[in-house]
Amino acid sequence: MIALRLPRFEWRWAALRNGLQDATAYRIEFFFEVLGAAVVPAAIQWLLWYAMFKLGGATSVAGMNYQDMVMYTLTSILFTQIRGGDHDFELSEMIRSGGLSNYLLRPAGVIEFVWLRGIAPKLFIAAFALVIGIGVGLFFGLSPIRMVGAMFLALIGNIIYYQFSASLASAAFYWEEAYSILMVKNMVVQLLSGELIPLNLIPESWSWVWKSTPFYLFVFGPTQYALGRWTHAEYFRQLGIGALWIIAMYGLIKLTWGLGTKRYLSLGG
Amino acid sequence: MNPVIEVKNVRRSFRSPKKKEGLAGAWKLLFSPEYQDHEALKGVSLSIEPGAFIGLIGANGAGKTTLLKILSGLIPPTSGEARVLGLEPFKRTLDFRRKISLVMGQKAQLWWDLPAVDAFDLIRAIYEIPVPLYKERLQTLSELLDVTKLLNTQIRRLSLGERMKMELIGALLHWPNVIFLDEPTIGLDVVAAQKLREFLREFNRREKATIILTSHNMEDIERLCSRVLILRAGELIYDGPPGKLTGDGVVELRVRLKETVEIAQLATLVGIPEASVRKAEAGGAEEEGDAALGVFHLSMAKERIVPSLQKLMSAYTVIDMGVSEQSLEGVIQKLFAEKP
């Protein structure tokens, strides 16, 4: 007889709770981290648009006027907070320092465990951002249903981002230090996710670059849908693409970590 | 009884980049790195029965931690075979991970910013421990280690000893069948180390868990372990009770003689093997300078002390003398000092 084993939900729920407790252990630090990460890039973008449209005299760039740009910037803040965290750096440091040993010997998958602890505060922020997004969105005539859908897509983006980052972090099994590669990844993702500028600003002849990565699903996609610039059909098509990326990245993690853990030396003890 | 741990001819080697000193060395490492191979374990074989409390000792770099890493499944052996609880450790099956525990004195597994009780709750969920049983175990362990009042304190606010105790609780909540302890008393004060030792002895006695302990503190080994494994440069050079190392009932007679005497003469006179006679070295830790002249250490059974002294006093002029038990630390020091 084949014994079917149900997924173990209890430790996953406990890891989520534990991650939230850990992230909020220092309340002031937590709020500053959230607000700082949201406000500073938005302020820089706003200054850029102000300089371009108000001081430079431009009326439209890539079909977007000043108001479109500001709306994009303000809406994208809701999703940049969900995009990801530094848990790939945590994984790489664990490999380098030998801290991974504790996790490898527990009856819980290390990649999923670290993700769950990392996503916990993001879920809290997502709920908070959603309430603000719906409230402010209603004032500007944005659909609450679209806002919920956009947040869901941003969460899908978080999963893909973490999967991709965790795969890159496995470079530490080979090179011991993967800090630089993760930093470069952060910069590329910031640009190609639409976090810094709307991806429409990238010339059409170069659009294949961002369209061939999953990064646009992290911020640009949710923002477009929330602002009503994507149809529902397009949204569901993009959700399907996101699901395919998750499957592909799952395979990549299995491969990179399967090979990597064979080389693990558990140094530092 | 089937052994709980079986190791057959296990070898493990590591390859690491070799850096020459200075900027030139750094430059060379960047563009043309050289590597060196190091064999940490050289064909180790052993077998351990369930419920045993084993002391694994050796000098730095002798291969203790490497052996623990292989047995706990963190790294595979380069060759040979290791089995723990009938399973191949490096496969790290769910069943295996549920039954073992590894505590490394130098690696924290609890979360720094959270109180221990939150970390323990997560561990409870990971190991699927029923809540009433978890509460019972937590109470037992925290009382045994005397940390009940500290369970709600942030880990980073605890002292080193208190943190180590919390680490142990975290490692034992799932009641593992096999526990690997890598220097658990490192950095602890005398009282904390003693508490920890009492706790480990009690846990081993009560739960019949197999415990393998590495430590540089011979007191840990002497007080806890019924069997000692000694590694030297990756080879197992001793496997037996600690009493056999120090020689049960064997004492050391220290005499300072006025005359110049050869070791062989003394051994013949007293009737013990030459290997049991040692001359103190000048400038060594035992005797300083001229004080070392004519000082001999003779290992023998307690009952032979008086007749041996009578023989020595009749043949030579004994300036002073003393009798001491052989310490495990002393024996181990000698073993470590010997070339492989």
Largest interface: A-B, 27 and 33 residues
What structural class do helix, strand and pairing data of chain A support? mainly alpha
Mean pLDDT of chain A: 87
Distance, first to last CA of chain A:
44 Å
- The secondary-structure class of chain B comes to alpha/beta
* CATH fold description of the largest domain in chain B: Rossmann fold
Q: Helices and strands of chain B, in N-to-C order?
A: EHEEHEHEHHHEHEHEEHEHEEHEH
Cα separation of the termini of chain B: 34 Å
Tally of individual helices of chain A: 12
- The level 1 CATH classification of the largest domain in chain B is Alpha Beta
| Strand proportion of chain B | 25-35%
CATH superfamily heading of the largest domain in chain B: P-loop containing nucleotide triphosphate hydrolases
How would the global form of chain B be characterised?
Answer: globular
Q: State the helical fraction of chain A.
A: over 70%
Taking pLDDT < 50 over at least 5 consecutive residues as the criterion, the unreliable ranges of chain A are none
What is the strand tally of chain B?
13
* Largest sheet report of chain A: none
